[in-house]
Amino acid sequence: MSKYSAFSLARHALDPDLPWPRAWRSPEPKASYDVVIVGGGGHGLATAHYLAKNHGITNVAILERSYIGSGNVGRNTTIIRSNYQMGANTGFFEHSLKLWEGLSHDLNFNCMVSQRGQVVVAVSPVQMDVFARRGNIMRLNGIDAELLDRGEVMKLLPYLDYSKDARWPVCGAIHQPRAGTARHDAVAWGYARSADMAGVDIIENCEVTGFAIENGKVTGVETSRGRINAGKVAIAVAGHTSHVAKMAGLRLPVESHILQAFVTEPLKPIVHHVVSWGAELFYLSQSDKGGLVFGGHIDGFNTYTQRGQFAKIRDVAECAVSLMPFTSRVRLLRHWGGIQDMTPDGSPFICKTPVKNLYLNGGWCYQGFKATPASGWTYAHTIANDEPHALNRDFSLDRFEKGNELDEFGIGNWTYKQ
Amino acid sequence: MRLACPHCGPRDYSEFRYGGDASKQRPPHGTTGHGTGDLQTWHDFVFLFDNPKGPHLEYWQHVLGCRRWFTLTRNTATNEVGEPK
Amino acid sequence: MTFRRLPSGGRIDRNRPVGFTLDGKRYRGFAGDTLASALLANDVTLVGRSFKYHRPRGIMSAGVEEPNALFTLHDGARTEANMPGTIVDLIDGLTARTQNAWPSVELDVMGINQLAAPLFQSGFYYKTFMGPTKGAWMFYEPFIRRAAGLGAATEAADPDRYETRFDFCDVLVIGSGAAGLAAALSAAGGGGRVLLVEQDSALGGGLLSEPEQDGWLQARLGEIRNASNIQALTHTTAIGLYDDNMVVLVERHDHRQPDPAKGQARQVLTMLQAKAIVFATGAIERPLVFANNDRPGVMLASAVRTYLNRFGVAPTGRAVIATNNDTAYAAAFDLAAQGVEVIVADSRTEIPADLQRRNSIEILAGTSVVDVKGKNTLHAVLDGAEQRTITCDVVGMSGGWSPVVHLTSHGGIKPVYNAAIAGFVPGGFAKTHSGAGAVMGTFGLNAAIREGAAAGGGSIAIAAAGGEDRPYAIVPTWMPPRRKGKAFVDFQNDVTAKDIKNAHQEGYHSVEHLKRYTTLGMGTDQGKTSNIIALAEMAELRGLPIEQAGTTTFRPPYTGVSLGAIAGRTIGGHFRPTRRSPLHDWHAANGGVFIEAGLWQRAWYYRWAGDTPESAYVKEMGLVRRGVGISDVSTLGKIDVQGPDAAEFLNRVYVNGFAKLPVGKARYGVMLNDDGIVLDDGTTTRISETQFYMTTTTAQAGEVMSWLEFLLQTQWTDLKVQVASLTDEWAGMAISGPKARAALELAFPGVDVSDAKLPYMGCLDFSFDGVPIRLLRLSFSGELAYEVHLSADYAISLWEHFLKTGASLGLKPYGLEALASLRIEKGHVAGLELDHRNTLDDLGLGKMAGKEKDYVGKALRQRPMYQAPERWSLVGLELLEPEKRLRGGAILFAKDDKIEGHGRGYITSVTWSVELGKTIALALYNGGLKHVGEEIVCAFPLKNELTRAKIVSPHFIDPEGKRLHA
Amino acid sequence: MLERRSALAVAHPFAWAALTLGEVRGFTLTQVAGFGNFAADVAATAGALPETSNQAVESNGRTIFRTGPHAFWFVGPENDDLAARLAGKAIVTPLSSSRTRISIEGRAAREVLRKGIPIDLHESVFTPGMFAQTGLHHTPVLLHCTAEQRFELYAMRTFALNVWEWLEDAALEFK
Ligand SMILES: Cc1cc2nc3c(=O)[nH]c(=O)nc-3n(C[C@H](O)[C@H](O)[C@H](O)COP(=O)(O)OP(=O)(O)OC[C@H]3O[C@@H](n4cnc5c(N)ncnc54)[C@H](O)[C@@H]3O)c2cc1C
Ligand SMILES: NC(=O)c1ccc[n+]([C@@H]2O[C@H](COP(=O)([O-])OP(=O)(O)OC[C@H]3O[C@@H](n4cnc5c(N)ncnc54)[C@H](O)[C@@H]3O)[C@@H](O)[C@H]2O)c1
Ligand SMILES: Cc1cc2nc3c(=O)[nH]c(=O)nc-3n(C[C@H](O)[C@H](O)[C@H](O)COP(=O)(O)O)c2cc1C
Ligand SMILES: [Zn+2]
């Protein structure tokens, strides 16, 4: 009996000796697979799930150097939304949000997809125009969006600083009611369990250390647990994209930067939305456990250490207290960092590479968690068909050569700029 | 993190501005024509990064201080900072 | 009665009684008490309900590791949730409330959760709440959220004040136990600046609970007080270690009840840069895992001892001490000395002989406490050679000690397992770090002192303490001795030994999965008492040695820190610096209304023209179009570019040529980034062969300055050019309108400002009243216009001079809104068009670029898609339906397009055109000016608007530029 | 008649027991930079130049700060004609209006400055005559120690009032 339900829960409650099955096995790696996925983060695991579900490809291994979910899927601020205005992004992220909406059912694993709405607070009339453009594009693409004036924001978020003392005024906001959060770890585990049930081998503590490439075609990987042959190899290692791609001789438009995240002590429900701020990059939501989970900008320099600078921690706390003065008395419980794969234009890659049968998924910047389902979906398609899905066609490596950047945030082609 | 400005000496990280990979060679000025080979050179220079896990030669500016731009090597796996140039 | 205050003893000040309330009920304690010790003294043992099962909970510890005894303190805007009573100094009038229980901790209704407990095993929520429909979680979530969370915060703004500061020292000693005191004294002997920080309210660490060592302690404290180079701070926690020896300290003044009105801070955060750091953070005792080990009255053995010796609070009758190691005997002896009947259940079969010396204590070897029964009275069930149930007031447990390795590993060094002490110790130290005392697993007092002295540099001898160190022995026990009943590992998050077993069964094997699946160690205590037990249990289940299982990652802060302390005073109005123009005071005093523009405050409009921006800007525009206005443009970036190669340099950074710009002439220039995207625009004037005066947009001034410095200092080091910012040195004011020249003539009598002397794009430097003036004939509005630049010191004076001399012409000030609208009429691009996504051609400026010369961005602006004919480029729009509106952010469609998707462009800027008497806009449109004359649809679905407009040239007024040249 | 006006015209200087906050008005700030051997030419006119980047030199009635490897600040009296005298010998940029000179004096001065400035201000380390180009509240400042308990802070003019407000707020506890 492997299906999760209230019923199975009750049966186990009545019979404490009835063992729960393992969520996923930990098999020894086989000598060869049709597809080897490098990286057991959200994207790698989702890709395996959709390879099996959508394309019937199950002779698949996911190789994870540590424990699954040890990367950014396990350390992000869990915001999901589809408020994108630039070309391919709009459809891609909306597809993702639609998949989120059915994900717990699809996986038979409660990912706690909480569509509590995201409110982005604008601090100037000009910013209202910028938000309006985004909201209009959303509406024109069938995505929910509302423009709120100051009064409406006051009703929704009574705890913001509306005083004269505020450095920047609250001018209004853009609101996506369907946006929200999801339980990050559950996403990794749910995809893992589902892929595992379909026959995929999830191999933890197995680091990829090289690629076997013959005549421009990849034939397998070298790992800390020996050589594994593969028909196709798919990279999905987020912050380590450059590092792993280099093993295949690729040099990419990616830099690795640390983004920090924060959680406070658990409190009774007080913040009922995802709240973001237009003054500086700042976003906060309350986890179901009660902690306020929040973050800001990347620290702003290349690093693979998962520790941040205190100066940035101050910036973020200053945002929290300035936007929401009550947070001043709330205590920070823990802060950590994740390594983000930043691209010049802020948009990702889901594409083929110059090496045949080697595929790339990376460059997720601030937005890879919300992308997880659609990323897995389109990456699986790309791998299965050796050509991109309509939704990820523009997420190609050659877009900078062509001048086809997707600069969603209007910060220009400068990865470390904030 | 503390970085040493070659003019002012060691200072807190918050006084600096990061300038990215300094190992890349900017194509010389005056050589930009209209050919595509040129485009490739510039594309690689602007868009591709080694992004190493280990020693990284990089630019910093002492932006709140003497405004000097300089380079130093920092280990991206440990954040250990070397001497400035 | 189970606890009472002893008539004497302890470190409390019995002459200073202190009143406080819990849940509205009044109690008394003494200065020197913590909230927890005072409650125990009042025999209040039930102080909360647990997170998930709502089980009754009491006080477990006497320190920062407390998982249970969390209170909400204070009222109103000062409400503070989840404070461990064990670290709250008792102050007069303190109000505390219990948490997570309704209507009261005694009668908590949610206690029925305990009945359903089998359903609530770890991770249960991942397995249910998924049906019946797709969005079902949205139905369940509010219930789960309400049940979760611990205390409640208030929505009110915090009235208190917080301070942040920087500091430096030679040696930082963290922890003031015997090891830390020795380290600080020894380091001070070396002459450096020593900082000793202690989170507790007093220096002394574990010694505060050891009356027999008080002599040694007092002697050392005296030496510390007398050492001029030691600064010792109590109530100060080292919360984290950051790169390059930055340690962040938080000092709490809550107990002093600081007055924010007097500038006193409730908490002070110090970013300390230490040359060397000694970690003397001690160790924390672990509980034992047995059924119902969470009952109120079950405490850490060391806590029982601390309450007894430091606070003079003792159990009234009988105590059971459960242990697997030697240290709990100290509590047993001290209790016995107070006349408490003590039974020691030691799970070890062999007990060191020297511990068996007291016949007043019953010692049961090979015996474990396996369960605790009873609701109001404790009945400890002992299992060993025989089964016994003992009714008692307290069960003091000791499962061994976990060194406080947290800070030592913040820098990335993982702790390692030391089997001799059954705990993790630092896995090594960076060059300038060292450790001493219990944190190293050194549990002997004199050994700790020696280690401290050595860590501090060993420059002076530190006196030894009385008595001999005895070896420390432990036979670790991790698993509960019996299966039945809830045996807690993480008390705060209600994680039991059974949950760990389940997690193992389901494959959540890695310690990180275990943590995330069960939430073990994720509470406010961050698993200080539970983490090691849990990972040891998991290792045992997996058949791995503990060292292979490893620990989860220790992360800052060591204990919770209010966000207020981190933000300090950089909040509210001081959140980011405010930048003010040299003319600011005039605007403020003369009806200027300000608007934020980045860090700047700019004059948005003036009251003379109206009371709302909508009404005022139109009037101000009219002033410029028909008369003359004056506007503050001091926020423009201004850069002095000097040197023999200045012309060559500008020729490289601007797309258009500057090499041949004549002296005394200005030119409009555009800069690209290397990628071919427009970076900035502005006018640059040649002052001499080797000197230029560059202006940039307000928004990009800093960026451009840094970029120029970058190029000169790192890329083109052969160019002899110096750049210096003049943004603060010079003020700028625009005099615009058909009567602008007349205004200048009135203002500067005797200065020839004729068209011949000062033609369009000309520059005139002269001195007025002894003050150098730079007069540039530039126009942003499209009218005859000038910019006057001068030393910022004289800005207001000259501005007033203009207003006075220009009064006959009707000269008045106009603000940012009018400025921005005038430029729309003229078709000049600005911030909304320069949004880092547009190329030169998109903005209709492609023709400016030099064909022959090289310039920054030249190569990459030629990428295929940057040259594609269907790119969105600058057009003008005229509203065709006067009763409707055009709005910024509207999406554009061709007349017959289906209104969906991304459209063919969007509106960047909109204004009412005074000149044309209609609404106009600038927009980016697919194919741009090819479509002039076409009717299009502007969609603004956010307001359900569809509006017809016509594409026109963006140069709405005076396209030939006659006015500029007038 | 054109009149000068300080960026701190609306600020209120104060003198408390522990702290005095004021403005130094009427000075000439001249930035002098150049290429190659320019320093020798400058020294010939203006006196010996400092070698170090943290110790100011007093010479000919001016305070000279070495602000960069090839740049100096000369702070002289009001109406100092140094700029004119150096014309042609170096790259000269007059900056008198661009910086506002705030004086901070008293036994609390170092502690107030510590709240914003990330350098070691201990009296044994940052001694009279020393200066540092550093940051305060995200803005660049030059901090000059003029006596054991007295400092001058050169703040950017357009931020000066804000820096003043910040200092005032930081000082409150010493009122
Ligand atoms: C602090 C923070 C907050 C964020 N907030 C949000 C947010 O709110 N919303 C949002 O949408 N996005 C957010 N993101 C981004 C998002 O988390 C990431 O973009 C996304 O999780 C990346 O995809 P992933 O899950 O596959 O990556 P990961 O989980 O990082 O997976 C990559 C995996 O590859 C493994 N790996 C690396 N090298 C090797 C190797 N050689 N061999 C084998 N395995 C290897 C790693 O161990 C890792 O497990 C945030 C990121 C961070 C750091
Ligand atoms: N198992 C044992 O037998 C055991 C355990 C602990 C201590 N001891 C005894 O205690 C004596 C000395 O021990 P010690 O000095 O190493 O430890 P200690 O416990 O006496 O002192 C450590 C001090 O560090 C403080 N501290 C911890 N983290 C801090 C932080 N982040 N910021 C500020 N303060 C912090 C604690 O509050 C405590 O006062 C010895 O006699 C030792 O034998 C014995
Ligand atoms: C959304 C989210 C919520 C979290 N909530 C908590 C929490 O309540 N308590 C806690 O201790 N850690 C919490 N964490 C942080 C984790 O403990 C952990 O620090 C993080 O996943 C990074 O892993 P690492 O610290 O092991 O590197 C949370 C993390 C995320 C991503
Ligand atoms: Zn410097």
UniProtKB/TrEMBL annotation, chain A:
Subcellular location: Cytoplasm
Superkingdom of the organism of origin: Bacteria
Alphabetical UniProt keywords: Cytoplasm, Nucleotide-binding, Oxidoreductase
Keyword Isomerase: no
Span of domain FAD dependent oxidoreductase: 34-380
InterPro entries reported for this sequence: FAD-dep_OxRdtase, FAD/NAD-bd_sf, SoxB
Major localization class: cytoplasm
NCBIfam families: soxB (TIGR01373)
Protein name per its UniProtKB record: Sarcosine oxidase subunit beta family protein
Lineage of origin: Bacteria, Pseudomonadati, Pseudomonadota, Alphaproteobacteria, Rhodospirillales
From TrEMBL, chain B:
Disordered: region residues: 16-37
Pfam family, one: SoxD
InterPro entries given in the database record: SoxD, SoxD_sf
Protein name (database record): Sarcosine oxidase subunit delta
TrEMBL record, chain C:
Keyword Amino-acid biosynthesis: no
The FAD/NAD(P)-binding domain, residue ranges: 170-413
InterPro entries xrefs: 2Fe-2S-bd_N (IPR042204), BFD-like_2Fe2S-bd_dom_sf (IPR041854), FAD/NAD-bd_sf (IPR036188), FAD/NAD-binding_dom (IPR023753), GcvT/YgfZ/DmdA (IPR028896), GcvT/YgfZ_C (IPR029043), GcvT_C (IPR013977), GCVT_N (IPR006222)
SoxA A3 domain residues: 484-569
Residue span, GCVT N-terminal domain: 583-852
UniProt entry keywords in alphabetical sequence: Oxidoreductase
Pfam families per UniProt: Fer2_4, GCV_T, GCV_T_C, Pyr_redox_2, SO_alpha_A3
Domain Aminomethyltransferase C-terminal: 874-958
Entry-linked NCBIfam families: soxA
Similarity field: Belongs to the GcvT family.
Protein's name in the database: Sarcosine oxidase subunit alpha family protein
Originating species: Dongia sedimenti
TrEMBL record, chain D:
Cited InterPro entries: SoxG (IPR007375), TrmE/GcvT-like (IPR027266)
A Pfam family: SoxG
SUPFAM superfamilies: Folate-binding domain
Highest taxon above the source species: Bacteria
Protein name stated in the entry: Sarcosine oxidase subunit gamma family protein
Species, as recorded: Dongia sedimenti
